[in-house]
Prior knowledge:
This protein is of the alpha+beta class. It has helices at 16-24, 26-32, 82-85, 117-139; strands spanning 4-13, 37-39, 47-51, 57-67, 71-78, 90-99, 102-111. Helix 1 packs across helix 2 (26-32).
Amino acid sequence: MSKSSFVYVTYIRTTPAKLWQALTDPEMNKKYWLGAHQESDWEVGSPWKIVLADGRIADEGEVIEIEPEKKLVLKWTNLFKPEMTAEGETRMECTMEQMGETMKLTILHEMNRPNSIVIGAVGSGWPMILAGLKSLLETGESLDMGQV
């Protein structure tokens, strides 16, 4: 079976600890994730979800692999739109690599389904979210893109 996948790489002038905090802390998430935040205890096997600013659950899944400041892998199911929910579970892998005073952040989001509408959607969502993250960590202010 062929896969659908999306890969995004960005470079952020920050420390491993600050990047990890921004990725896993709900209050930090709200500053760049269009008002949404993630909830989890960040342990392998633990549930994970994205909560929108109005309290609705947008996505949920499970922590598959975690290595603080280096790697995070999640099972990810979209709950926001029925046609995406129907496609089922995706896999998101986030890797972080220190390069001097810069962190290389790579997002790989994929599923075992050709022409996935979920993967198509994350192809526009991730760049916007990660642009806000980069701005927040480098300038102290995120981009104002509203809320979802």
